[in-house]
Structure formats: C-alpha cells, structure tokens
Amino acid sequence: MGVVNKFLNYLGLQDEQERDREREEPMGYEDEPEVETSAFEPRKPTGKNNIVSIHSQKNVRVILTEPRTYDNEAQEIADHLKSRRSVVVNLQRVRRDQAIRMVDFLSGTVYALGGHISKLGPNIFLCTPDSVEITGTISELMAEDADYSKMR
125, 118 in Cβ contact below 8 A? Predict the structure, then answer.
C-alpha cells in the first residue's frame, strides 16, 4: 500500500472496495501478461551483448627499468603504471638518497592507482597496476641473499 493510500485510509476518504482490490493484487504485475515457456526452449537474444572477453588485454607488457636519476625517470615509470603496465625497477645504479625518493614516489603512485609494489631483491622492486595480482613472497630468498654473497 502506498503512502497516499495510507493517508487516505487514515482520513477515511478511500472506499473499502479499493482497499480490498489493492490487497488482492500483487504490486507491479498488473500490466505484464503471463508467458509460459517450456524448459527446453532456447533463449531468445534480448538485444544486449552480455559476452565478456576473458582476454581483455592482448598486449600485456612488463617494463624493465634501471634508472640512473630521479628527475625524469620516476615520472616515466609512473606513466607506464598509469598505462596499466607492470614495471620492474632496478635501483642499483641510483644513489641511495635518490633511490629512497624514487621508492616513495612510486609507492604513492601505486597507491593512487590501486596497485601493488613488492620488493624482489636488494634495490629491485615490482610495481603493478590494479589489474595485476601478486601472490606469494620471496622474503626467504632475501634473508638467504647475505649467505649467498658470502659463498662467492
């Protein structure tokens, strides 16, 4: 029963026949004709294309970068992330203070895009957009890295 009908009932302005009719009829089905279909009848197209491609990105790229300065190269990496490309960043050739700035900048970029940043090794990071899921960790290898360099 609608708000108007309740108001009319409260004031006593609505007939009892109208109230009974509203109670008997289900709401929203007065104008729709009932159509029976068999269980084996094929569906007819409705005009909307509901097909979604599983392979939505045909050219998936992973960009490998080895920046030497913070200035323009951090922005280039961010542009790759905005274009929904994953980027592996090797910061071994950058001074420590610039590497820290670059990781901070890329962390903010990845956060703003809803992506992820993961450390792959010493001074090597993987930055991915939100369309790429990263599973697993390699932290055990990072702990063994010190032992591995001693063995050389």
Answer: yes
